[in-house]
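Need residues for this backbone.
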């Protein structure tokens, strides 16, 4: 392990450089990482990376899902709940069914149960890939909300399909009523466990004498504990983590201090940044090992199967996307929908084309055991792994590279959005009016003798009048940044000149300047 340590350090450096390159050339970094991993894997002498299959889900999935649940808007999730649930459950099942039927019919030795194993693995689109692409192009808020909501739930639905299919392969039977009971427990039990343990963690944050560091450590432990607890009782660990994340996210201001919230965001963004980078790099690095394990199937034939399954997934999702719109247009005559206007043909096309596969598909494929409980080898394991790799690679390359072009080319209608800058300034003014009213109502008797309070009231009065000292022009931002840098240099020189000056005082002032610079991001 120690002999390979320089290799792992180099791998992290390569990941960082490729992500920076992706941001520079405006290409989604998952595409670059997969290709880089593929190239690196063919370099002679590269260490073989082996991760225990059962650890794949536990290492990567809980924190990534938990962070996603913290960042999503519950209001948007609830508003678009029908289209989100249809994509996350119905479309995923249709994709898995399509793959199962085609694989069973085309691939020799592929039973229907094995087809559903493969279908459960490759049916969920990857949110990270879509999010990396959407950073470079503007899309209506409705599309980003639907994709974010779908990504939270489609992992659960696909893994449920995967689990049932694995049981069918191992036992060579499928008992419907037992599956229905197990399915219900996985969904409702997972949600209940997530909410219960989430509530306990919320109370722990609130009533234990924690500081920012302790709060962050607790938040890092939370998704792993919840996932493990749910999986131990055979419910859905994915739904448990997601439901807990949504609960804590929507109550964060009740049990976390401002310092814990600010520092926690930075820690979690860095952690998920590294985890996502490692996963996509692993996808490329694993190919030679997977290829060596192919038995009874030529490499060219296996590639053909991968291309076929990729086409099935793309077509089935595209048809399902337009089908969901048609169903919604019919259903709006009988039920209340989020928006009764016709979305046109462009929005469903983008939703259908945003079907890149990634983290969950890789984790699910690698989690397939080498041997069944009876000691026999798992049938078609390496072929399933290889097809999964081809699907991930092709969807990232074909859909990932063309999605920005399609978004720019078809000019999506912005029928659901209100101008964000206008809404932002309106909320700021209403907030200022509330602040001024509160100060004058509750502290009116202290205004006359408190100069600081008078200045605070004047500040919020300026907000209401539109004289906003925090909404500054780009030119002034550049001037202020220059000033902050000069102030830092002055502090550095002052610290060097006075050997008796306590350096903690200088660092405190430096921290204040950093906060001032960070504020510019929100102005």
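Answer:
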């Amino acid at each position: 392990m120690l002999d390979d340590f320089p290799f792992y350090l180099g791998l992290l450096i390569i990941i960082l450089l490729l992500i920076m390159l992706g941001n520079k050339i405006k290409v989604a970094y998952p595409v670059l990482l997969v290709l880089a991993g593929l190239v690196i894997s063919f370099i002679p002498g590269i260490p073989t990376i082996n991760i225990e299959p059962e650890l794949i889900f536990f290492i990567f999935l809980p924190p990534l899902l938990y962070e996603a649940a913290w960042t999503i808007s519950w209001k948007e999730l609830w508003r678009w709940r029908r289209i989100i649930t249809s994509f996350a459950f119905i479309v995923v099942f249709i994709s898995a069914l399509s793959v199962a039927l085609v694989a069973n019919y085309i691939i020799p030795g592929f039973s229907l149960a094995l087809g559903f194993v493969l279908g459960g693995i490759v049916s969920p689109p990857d949110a990270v890939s879509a999010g990396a692409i959407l950073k470079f192009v503007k899309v209506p808020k409705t599309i980003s909300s639907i994709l974010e909501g779908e990504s939270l739930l489609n992992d659960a639905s696909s893994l449920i399909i995967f689990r049932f299919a694995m049981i069918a392969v191992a036992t060579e039977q499928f008992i419907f009523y037992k599956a229905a009971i197990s399915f219900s427990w996985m969904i409702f039990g997972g949600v209940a466990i997530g909410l219960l343990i989430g509530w306990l963690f919320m109370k722990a944050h609130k009533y234990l004498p924690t500081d920012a560091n302790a709060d962050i450590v607790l938040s890092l432990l939370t998704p792993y504990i919840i996932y493990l607890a749910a999986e131990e009782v055979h419910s859905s660990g994915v739904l448990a983590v997601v439901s807990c994340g949504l609960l804590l996210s929507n109550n964060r201001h009740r049990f976390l201090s401002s310092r814990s919230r600010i520092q926690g965001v930075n820690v979690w963004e860095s952690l998920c940044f590294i985890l996502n980078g490692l996963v996509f790099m692993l996808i490329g690095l694993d190919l030679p090992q997977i290829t060596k394990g192919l038995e009874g199937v030529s490499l060219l034939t296996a590639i053909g199967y991968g291309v076929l399954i990729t086409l099935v997934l793309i077509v089935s999702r595209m048809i399902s996307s337009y089908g969901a719109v048609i169903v919604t247009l019919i259903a709006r005559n009988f039920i209340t929908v989020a928006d009764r206007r016709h979305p046109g043909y462009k929005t469903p096309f983008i939703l259908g084309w945003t079907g890149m596969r990634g983290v969950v598909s890789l984790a699910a494929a690698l989690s397939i055991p080498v041997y069944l409980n009876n000691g026999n080898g798992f049938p078609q394991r390496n072929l399933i792994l290889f097809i999964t790799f081809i699907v991930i690679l092709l969807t990232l390359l074909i859909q990932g590279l063309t999605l920005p072009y399609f978004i720019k080319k078809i000019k999506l209608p912005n029928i659901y959005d209100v101008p964000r800058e206008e809404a932002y300034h309106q909320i700021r003014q209403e907030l200022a009016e509330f602040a001024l009213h509160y100060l004058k109502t509750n502290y009116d008797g202290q205004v006359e003798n408190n100069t600081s309070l008078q200045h605070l009231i004047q500040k919020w009065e300026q907000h209401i009048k539109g004289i906003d000292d925090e909404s500054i022009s780009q030119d002034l931002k550049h001037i202020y940044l220059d000033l902050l840098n000069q102030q830092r240099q002055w502090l550095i020189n002052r610290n060097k000149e006075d050997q008796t000056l306590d350096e903690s005082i200088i660092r405190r002032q430096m921290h204040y300047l950093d906060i001032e610079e960070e504020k510019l991001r929100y102005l």
